[in-house]
Write a structure and sequence with these properties.
Cofactor: Mg(2+)
CATH architecture of the largest domain: Orthogonal Bundle
Number of domains: 3
Subcellular location: Mitochondrion membrane
Strand content: under 5%
Keywords: Heme biosynthesis, Membrane, Mitochondrion, Transferase, Transit peptide, Transmembrane, Transmembrane helix
Distance between the termini: 170 Å
CATH superfamily of the largest domain: UbiA prenyltransferase
CATH class of the largest domain: Mainly Alpha
CATH topology of the largest domain: Tetracycline Repressor, domain 2
Enzyme class: transferase
Helix content: over 70%
Order of helices and strands: HHHHHHHHHHHHHHHHHHHHHHHHH
Number of strands: 0
Shape: globular
Biased composition (Low complexity): 31-66
Radius of gyration: 37 Å
């Protein structure tokens, strides 16, 4: 009786996950059981009388096929790591959450046809509420960040607490006028491309695509919001701010929108559209505190006082690229299918480089606001932290070319980084906390020194007058002496 040699122990025998120790070709326990159950006849055809002298080890050797040498040499923890990486690479990019327009369209479609709420939700969906709110936030933040006049800052009797630059009424006109202007621009944008919006999952539920609003109704809504919005800006702010808002409507609806299907430069045009609202808010505040009385567009746009507005506009211009390039990467296939010329699919490598480049550009412009005295030292620290976070995510986005979740990470970093800069600029506004300090603890020592100097000047003037009077007395006596002589 032949003595069969016992096969050497396999490494997979000691794996803690032996029931899942490989695929169908690695010789795991499940794969061997499945193969034996799948071919019962092949086993029976080649069956021989049982060898009573065979050891249990020999039975196991014939039942379990020997795995390939490469699979045997793979350690369990490396195999688990490889399977995890393969599963992650096979998973598609997570879809973005529904935008506000889609959510409002779904709400409108679920309501009765004659319901006023249905019409209100449908028309509100035309405005892209989240985008319009962001534009209003950037405009009003720039308005509030305008430097406080030195006269108001030094004399607490004229203003108890320097919060906003100017009147609340001007702020209301600016806010409502800017929002209505955004509503008009977004509605015109939707009217220009409903058949292309229907090709993308992100935009296929917009009200014009679903027929919740007629084309005529959308046109009347766009004209009405434009007229009212620009009218409020003209009455409550100044002609320069109104002209910038009108130019933004035209640029977004009639230049950026058609360029999306022609050339990738559309992203830069869209960034200009995003950079104009902060300049509008700055000029609205600048006009209110102007001491010269001029209201020409040159005075508003190209004076030393307008540098802060240009820096804020530059921050919003640069911010568009990491935000939109990350967003477009997540839906690049849909942009390509709809015929939109976006860097995300036309030139993916350039798409990531541009996002990183403009993220780095946020540093000098944020420092510039501190350098010219718009904000204090706190903004310098806070903006540096926020910008470092954005640059880190942009670098990972460039390094991995948008893979491994880096596009989504950059998108959410940009969502949070911008409010940190805007709110931080308002909180650390130059002179804001000086007014709070004066109201709590009284006048600072510097004003006492100025008051002392003021009294000293008065004493000098009195001394000069007394000397002139004393000098006039001898001359009078001299004249009297001469007359008596």
């Amino acid at each position: 009786m032949a003595n069969q040699s016992t096969s050497p122990l396999q490494k997979t025998y000691f794996s803690p996950n032996r029931l899942y120790d490989g695929s169908n070709t690695t010789g795991g326990l499940l794969s061997s059981i499945a193969s034996s159950n799948a071919n019962p006849q092949s086993n029976s055809s080649n069956s021989q009388p049982p060898n009573t002298s065979a050891t249990p080890n020999s039975t196991t050797e014939t039942a379990t096929p020997i795995a390939p040498e490469s699979a045997q040499s793979e350690l369990p923890h490396r195999r688990r790591k490889r399977l995890k990486e393969e599963s992650n690479s096979a998973q598609p990019e997570q879809s973005l959450p529904l935008d506000a327009s889609t959510q409002l369209s779904n709400i409108s479609a679920a309501l009765p046809t004659t319901s006023l709420r249905r019409k209100f939700a449908a028309y509100l969906a035309l405005t892209k509420p989240r985008l319009s709110f962001l534009v209003v936030l950037t405009t009003t933040s720039a308005y509030g960040m305008y430097p406080i006049s030195s006269l108001l800052a030094l004399d607490p009797a004229m203003t108890p607490l320097p919060t906003l630059s100017t009147s609340t009424l001007t702020l209301i006109y600016l806010t409502v006028g800017t929002f209505l202007s955004c509503c008009s621009a977004n509605t015109l944008n939707m009217m220009a491309e409903p058949k292309y919006d229907a090709l993308m999952s992100r935009t296929r539920n917009r009200p014009l695509v679903r027929g919740l609003v007629s084309h005529r109704g959308a046109m009347l809504f766009a004209i009405g919001t434009a007229v009212i919005g620009l009218g409020l800006l003209y009455i409550g702010t100044n002609p320069t701010t109104t002209a910038l808002s009108a130019a933004n409507i035209a640029l977004y609806a009639f230049v950026y929108t058609p360029l999306k299907r022609i050339h990738v430069i559309n992203t830069w045009i869209g960034a200009i559209v995003g950079g104009i609202p902060p300049l509008m808010g700055w000029i609205a505040a600048q006009n209110q505190v102007a001491t010269t009385g001029h209201d020409t567009w040159r005075d508003m746009l190209f004076s030393e006082e307008s540098i802060g507005g240009w820096l804020l506009g530059g921050i919003l211009f640069a911010w568009q690229f990491p935000h939109f390039n990350a967003l477009s990467h997540l839906i690049r296939d849909e942009y390509k299918g709809a015929g939109y010329r976006m860097l995300a699919w036309v030139n993916p490598a350039m798409n990531t480089r541009v996002a990183l480049r403009y993220s780095v550009l946020m540093f000098p412009m944020s420092i510039g606001l501190w350098w010219i005295g718009v904000v204090g030292h706190g903004f310098l620290v806070g903006s540096t932290v926020a910008n470092c976070w954005l640059v880190r995510e942009a670098y990972r986005f460039w390094q991995h070319q948008g893979a491994q979740g880096t596009a989504r990470g950059l998108f959410w970093a940009s969502i949070w980084q911008l409010p940190i800069l805007l709110v931080g600029g308002l909180v650390t506004k130059k002179g804001l906390w000086d007014g709070v300090w004066r109201n709590i603890f009284g006048q600072p020592e510097e004003e006492d020194d100025e008051e002392y100097l003021y009294y000293e000047d008065e004493e000098e003037d009195l001394g000069t007058n007394s000397k002139s009077q004393d000098s006039s007395v001898p001359s009078a006596n001299r004249s009297n002496t001469l007359s008596t002589a």
